[in-house]
Design a protein that fits this description.
mainly alpha
Length: 238
């Protein structure tokens, strides 16, 4: 008794093809879907941003928006400078004549007004950083690296502008001439100075941290990638 021979290759195509003839129309539909995969996948994935085209604004648009944000935030430094000049404590000085020369002294050597000047600027900078980050996030929820950089640069420029505006609005910087003007032994206010230059970073630091946090919590989420070409149907049992 001899074993049956395998059918020739041309006779096996109908029996051994996948899916089997009884697998149903779903399996044939998956073959059609696979044949269309190269074109359909590219069109489908192009809108997700991780394959093909990006669904967000172009880099040129983001850079332009970042520049507008930086300028708008920096202009807020004028208001910060006015508030600093208005709210900062005054450092009292007094002038005297010693051997024919004018000498200026601190009236209260143990006073903490100078520390209060730096503290006022720091607190105002933090408040302006929170407000600017919140406004930028509400207007532009998508975020992006150029926008965050523009916000931080605008905060730093705003702090520098506020510092110079406050000094310009404050008392005269020539304390000897001011002492001569008011007279010997008369108390007058010292120029508005920022002793701790690190306070200039309060605004950009607060804006950067808050904006990144808001974007992480409430920003848009990227869609999950979709894989697969259709439902899988197992071949019928023999």
């Amino acid at each position: 008794m001899t074993a049956p021979l395998n059918p020739p290759p041309h006779e096996r195509s109908a029996q051994d093809s996948w899916p089997p003839p009884g697998a149903g129309p779903g399996a044939h539909g998956s073959q059609t879907h696979e044949a269309e995969a190269p074109g359909s996948q590219q069109a489908e994935y192009a809108g997700h941003g991780w394959y093909g085209q990006d669904d967000g604004p172009g880099m040129r648009t983001e850079v332009r928006e970042a520049g507008v944000v930086a300028v708008a935030v920096a202009l807020g430094g004028v208001l910060l400078g006015v508030l600093w000049w208005w709210l900062a404590p005054h450092v009292p000085l007094v002038g005297d004549v010693v051997e024919g020369n004018w000498v200026v002294y601190l009236k209260d050597t143990e006073g903490e007004q100078a520390v209060g000047v730096d503290g006022t600027f720091t607190l105002l900078g933090l408040a302006f950083g929170v407000v600017s980050a919140l406004v930028v996030f509400l207007l532009r929820r998508r975020g992006g690296v150029p926008l965050v950089v523009g916000l931080a640069v605008g905060g730093l420029l705003g702090s520098l502008l506020a510092w110079r505006v406050g000094v310009w609005l404050g008392p005269a910087e020539d304390v000897v001439a001011h002492a001569r003007e008011v007279g010997r032994g008369v108390t007058f206010s010292a120029p508005l100075r920022l002793g701790a230059k690190g306070a200039l970073l309060a605004w950009p630091f607060a804006a950067l941290v808050l904006h990144l946090g808001l974007t992480a919590l409430f920003g848009p989420r990227d869609p999950e990638p979709e894989f697969g070409h259709g439902p899988y149907e197992a071949p019928p049992a023999a």
